[in-house]
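Reader question, answered in our methods column.
A reader sent in the components of a multi-part assembly and asked whether the whole thing could be modeled at once rather than chain by chain. We filled in our standard form and ran it. Here is what they sent:
COMPLEX SIZE: two components
ENTRIES:
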Amino acid sequence: MSRGEQTLTVSAGAKTRPRKAATRRQKQERLVAVGFLAPFMLLLLIFQYVPLLVMARNSFYDYSLLNPAAEKFVGLRNFADMIEYDDARRSFGITFLFAFGVVVFVIPIAFALALFLNSKLPARGLVRTMIMLPVVTSSVVIATMWSFLLDPSNGLINGALDIVGIARQPFLTSTQQALPSLIAMTLWQQVGFGAILFLAGLQGVPSELGEAARIDGATRWQVLWNITIPLLSRTTLFVVVIMTVFSLQAFAPAFLMTQGGPQEATNLIVYHIYNTAFIMQQAGYASALSVVLLLVVLAISMVQMALLRSRWNY
Amino acid sequence: MKIYAIVFASLLGATALNATGAQAQTAAACTGETVTLRILRTPGNYPYPKPMEAWQKENPCVKFEVNEVPFPQLADTISVQAASSNPPDIIVYDGPNTQSYAAAGILLPITKYLPKGWDDDILPATKAEHSYNGEVYSPGIEQTTVAMYYNKKLVEAAGVKPPQTLAEAWTWPQALEAFKKCQQGPAGAAAVWGLGPTRFGNGQPGLVYQDLTYQRSAGDPKAAPTTSAYKTFWAFAPDGKTAEGYLNTPEAVEALKFYQSMFNAEGVAPKVGIPNAFFDAKACFYIDTPAAGNALIKDPKIEWGITPLPYFKTPVVHTGSTTFGATARSKHPEIAAKFVVDMSWGEYAYMNVSQRGNLPTLKSLFSRFDIYNKYPMKVFVDQLQSWGQPRPPGPKFAQYDKIVSEALRGVAFGGNPAELMADAEKKVQRILDR
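And here is the structure of the entire assembly that came back:
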């Protein structure tokens, strides 16, 4: 440590108050807290962090789940393969597009619904139930139901289009329409969750600010744009991060509705990882894909937090 | 309260007596150490209780612990359990995976346990599918293949007369004409489809088991091995080292254009599944295994018949069924191999096969199944014996199956056949090169 650094440490230490010795009660409380936390920390360690380390280690090996004992150390080959072959690039690209589509639509619609739920308009209870039902319904049920709705021959949506004179659409069997169809389904499923989060945020905004602005002559729109939305930036950040992470981890729609097709148009990265490990029997490559996904999710979350960091507080 | 106590005591007593009796019976019969064989199978699959109980009478020291998983999760479960410290002793699995499991060291070779005469009695396609590097890994019990069922009422109303023998079998263009005549409603959105969707997977087209035969039948196994006609028929190099030049051939592309037209331009087949379409009279024709025929014999919902699977140049049907084998890391390999072989031979094999009604793998058993000796179910036996080919076998079959199925599905949904097959060849090669 240099002399300058020492001086800085001393001066910094001089500014902080001397720490009081913990009382017996405080020590007891800490012990209780540790006791409560320990089992969960242990589970977190065993089921989250240890598997992460094992996954990181496996990403340098080539092996099949059928015979893991025959693993081969391949160094960075799995990562090099991600560059050499286009499967990872395509799958990540599709997943980003999916996540972008979900976030871009969920945020404004969820916010609009939250505004409605926060108002004194009629049928709020009914709307709240309607938008929350898909959130609590099993993904398998939703995927099955939407598969029937989007049936290219006899689906309900095509039936409705037929009535208004629009030609039948292929939806899940078209390379152009399959991903937008999955985005629409995910939007329908997740928008309720986003709305409830926004509603919680709206109910925390002090009403005096809006009232004062209204007295000063601000219109409803100006109050919304200049007061409510800025004050909800923390909630918005949370919803954006949560929806992005949910979307990047999406598996059920690709697995149950499209099996990644047609022509890999919906080959979301988590489904691709599953497919690579369990069907293609390239568990090492699947681990490498998982490591990259983890880093990508971390990076995106950090960027989003930096960009959307709140400048206002209440 | 007193009555409840008496009833409870009686039940307890009866249970205890019953248990004692059962224990006494086993103990009396078994003089050695008891062995528990752990079986992993799919629900409703063999080995069935009746032959197992009969076998246990001859082998009283063997007990069974059966675990079941649904078929779609079977391969994943085997992947996980086979590598565990305590793998099952016997696994029921999809037959074409035999070479994958053998190469991975999961299955125990059972050649030395096979009875005399097995080689002559087994169907050649079954033996080819269940062998790897000169060793047999599964004796097989059942064999299936697909043929085309038809709804008699609907096809007669359309004035169509499907052939009933292999000699008169339709070509695909002839079959398409029949589909078009019989279909009711607009192309692509019919009320009654010309050709109904498969019941396998999620009902979408593209499965290798059913749909790779379109292009294979456009090939010619008798052509010179260097020709595209020969390669089209085999769809995979016989030495299992490459698929390049075997999927994207002019013959295959031509056949696939026809295949694609059925789902698009002609609109005689749906792109997605419709549960029970054929059984609910919503399809004139339908491709399925003998299981559908057996179900219709038990519960004749519709009047039906069977016509051989159509073809382009060379008739071909895929064989294969679930099968079973002893695991190499079983704690009791000898007894597991004995059980597997016994269950697939002689009377036990008959008991197992007759339970579900699929075809046997032993030629000697065919005569014992009356339904397979006469039309309509005889079509399956004839096809199996004259046209049967295993799906392209190899230690990477599961990967090949997935890649090629996706490519075929892409074609059915309107993708470019040549591009999709070229891409499939590359993907298969990448797997083989690892």
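What stands out: The domain at 86-307 of chain A is CATH 1.10.3720.10 (MetI-like fold). Chain A is about 70% helix and 0% strand.
Send us your own complexes using the same form.
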